[in-house]
Write a structure and sequence with these properties.
There is one protein chain. This protein has 333 residues and is mainly alpha-helical. The chain is 72% helix and 0% strand. The model has no long low-confidence stretch (mean pLDDT 80).
């Protein structure tokens, strides 16, 4: 809907730069990649002197469609924007996010070390912490690695302690630590937030505390964790909140119909630039759910859809393994 409104805006009198700048983003987030490429080309043609927004729009397009080369090139452009310290740090976060697309997790961790160095120089400690949490989220969604080593590195680096407790990315920090099973660290940051927060943050703190408690059940009893999050979701009146986490918990509990229902919710639950990753990860997870449920036709349909959503999708090992399991004679065709 937003893309359609912006399309009307650029055709009217007195069109603003922001309308042109936002069209590529919204088309990418909505999965309309051909339209996003067209809008990006029009932005670059109409505003050739602009460097920020074409680079950012190109990164979002590359990240959303898993076009690794485009995402990496545009992230590097962001890092080189003249006199743009904040955009350089945004470029660093963008570079971190390209690595999980191809499983290059060691490269992402090296970039995070650079981000910490930049933070010391530019006092961008929040951006450095956010880059590490971006990587944790990417690993969480894409199943491309274990997030615990670099989350532990974030905790031991002292970066978080350099940020005022009221200004830390508390929600994401505590959620990722809890999901990874680093409960002691999550509790410590939760207590620091609770001690220094303004009254207006009380509701958010209660929600994060309940979420952390639920995630704490994951290792021993994933079904109990899922039930606790279901209650939290009802209390928050948010039908799609934590759909990905619930789907994962139901998978771990072997409850595939419930997992499938949550994965389908995940197709619409993404936010910001994570929408593309949510959609792609959910498509692959839906394929696995159908495979477990014995519905071969639907499993093949969603595995193929998963591949088609990505610029580098053909030949992905996890898809090829699935194809060999489901229909070894026909998969090569």
């Amino acid at each position: 809907d937003a893309s359609a409104l912006l399309e009307q805006a650029v055709g009217g009198p007195g069109t603003s730069f922001s309308a042109y700048a936002n069209r590529p983003l919204y088309y990418s987030l909505g999965g309309q990649y051909d339209e996003a490429r067209r809008a990006l080309a029009e932005l670059e043609e109409k505003y050739p002197a602009s460097e920020l927004w074409p680079s950012w729009g190109g990164f979002i397009l590359g990240f959303s469609s898993w076009d690794v080369e485009l995402a990496r090139d545009r992230a590097l452009e962001l890092q080189n924007v003249p006199d743009g310290i904040s955009w350089r740090r945004t470029g660093t976060r963008a570079l971190v996010l390209t690595s999980p697309l191809t499983g290059e997790m060691s490269a992402a961790r090296d970039i995070i070390l650079c981000a910490v160095t930049d933070a010391e120089r530019d006092y961008g400690f929040n951006d450095a912490a956010s880059a590490s949490l971006d990587l944790a989220r990417a690993e969480h969604l894409m199943g491309s690695g274990d997030a615990r080593p670099h989350l532990r590195a974030l905790v031991s680096s002292g970066v978080v302690e350099r940020i005022d407790p009221r200004s830390r990315p508390n929600w994401r920090l505590i959620e990722e630590l809890s999901w990874a099973g680093l409960d002691a660290d999550a509790s410590r940051y939760l207590e620091a937030w609770r001690a220094d927060a303004a009254d207006v943050q009380g509701a958010a703190i209660r929600t994060v505390a309940a979420l952390a408690d639920a995630f704490g059940e994951r290792t021993d009893d994933p079904l109990a964790a899922a039930r606790a999050i279901e209650i939290l979701r009802r209390n928050e009146r948010c039908a799609r909140c934590w759909a990905w986490e619930l789907g994962t918990l139901y998978e771990e509990a072997g409850m595939w119909p419930e997992a499938l229902a949550e994965r389908e919710r995940s197709l619409e639950a993404g936010q910001d630039f994570w929408f593309g990753a949510h959609r792609i990860a959910a498509t692959e997870a839906i394929a696995r759910a159908y495979e477990e449920l014995g519905d071969v036709d639907q499993a093949v349909r969603y595995y193929r859809e998963y591949v088609e959503q990505m610029s580098n999708g053909a030949g992905l090992p996890r898809v090829d393994r699935a194809g060999q399991r489901i229909c070894p004679r026909a998969w090569g065709d």
